[in-house]
Amino acid sequence: MAMQNEKEELNPFKIAQQQFDRAADLMHLDEAARQLLREPMRTIEVRIPVKMRTGKTKVFTGFRVQYNTARGPAKGGIRYHPAETIDTVRALSAWMTWKCSLANIPYGGGKGGVICDTKSMNELELENLSRGYIRALAPFIGPKKDVPAPDVYTTPQIMGWMMDEYEKIVGKSEPGVITGKPLEVWGSVGRSDSTAMGAMYVLREAAKLKKINLKTARIAVQGFGNAGSFAFTLAKKMFGSRIVAISDSQGGVYSKTGLDYDKLEEAKKRSGSIQGAKGVEKITNEQLLELDVDVLIPAAIENQVTGKNADRIKAKLLLELANGPVTPDADRILFQKGVFDLPDFLVNSGGVIGSYFEWLQNQSGYYWEADEFYTRLDKVITKSFKDVMTTHDEYGKKGQKITPRDAAYIIAIDRVAKAMKARGWY
């Protein structure tokens, strides 16, 4: 029974609902709006037959969840993972809804996934799977319906195949059906590092507010994937920060004087893990989270800071670059400890803002230079941060102590609820 309860507590969709319920209570949300926003509007499950290199056909299960489209087409990534679950996809589609609303861009939220192990598949099998996924979902997606993008174990090349398959089905050019595409088929400059770049703009504003000198700050990053790697290099380049720890799936490394990214990358290529780097101290992922640092950036997977370890977090500022890295029980503990925890759907919204920019360019046929992309990204995400802090302070003046996550949810839910009301949905 205890194990079942723990599983329920770490279920990502249950967590998303708990976070939603808390904000809905704080803002006294209309009951009909609450019922509409607590569950996805549409859940699609498909079967995808793929002829494998053995000559046998394997049937894969795929999902697409369109959580809410009151503010525009559904928007969200596609994940390829052997342990993909419908509840993970539901949770991520909910967070995408709030992310797009908080950024105030004209999208609803969606998410997709396929249960598969990409590491055991060759390129042709991956291509056939990707095209099969789009054939199964073609009636439900489109530039004005639902716009997918890359996520875990999906790449710009996979997005290129998907766009091509969709265009074959509809018989016309539709680059705006997918974002995160290669530049050669009208992807956007800036999109590849937009998630981490957006987080750096949020970090800059948070550091000003909390009077943290980023030039002398010690930063620990959990995760050596796209977001974590870019967070490492950008924090150093933009602020001169010292990255003292980082980890991958095998474990972490620590250096009091700061880590050298090139040496870590070389070790990763040579040995399969950054723990193969020389002159560093090996640590576990758990130890990394509890280091005495100024800024902690979870950039890996969900449920990393929980009720079991939250009281041992020493960072002054927690920047949630991953989706769902902090559980609701950890939220309360961090808040009581005075840790300034900035929520995922604010911090990592640079990715979907960048996707929005790509979609805009696809719609207009006019493409921006990198400077214009980053300037616009800075403007949008900085406004989101300031909106969150304003709402946070307004509730504080009324005697209600809320977290930055609560404030972000209140803004996002209010915008979606008002859009539903204007449409006459309730």
Q: What features would you describe in this structure?
A:
The protein has 426 residues and is of the alpha/beta class. The chain folds into two domains: 28-177, Leucine Dehydrogenase, chain A, domain 1 (Rossmann fold, 3-Layer(aba) Sandwich), CATH 3.40.50; 194-342, Rossmann fold (3-Layer(aba) Sandwich). 48% of the residues lie in helices and 17% in strands. The protein contains 15 helices and twelve strands. It has helices spanning 2-9, 12-26, 31-38, 86-103, 123-137, 156-170, 194-210, 226-239, 261-271, 285-289, 328-337, 344-347, 350-364, 370-397, 404-423, and strands spanning 42-51, 57-68, 74-81, 108-115, 146-150, 218-222, 242-248, 251-254, 281-283, 295-298, 317-319, 340-342. Strands 9-8-7-6-10-11-12 form a seven-stranded mixed β-sheet, sandwiched between helices. It has a five-stranded mixed β-sheet with strand order 1-2-4-3-5. The longest helix is centred in the C-terminal third of the chain and has 28 residues, at 370-397.
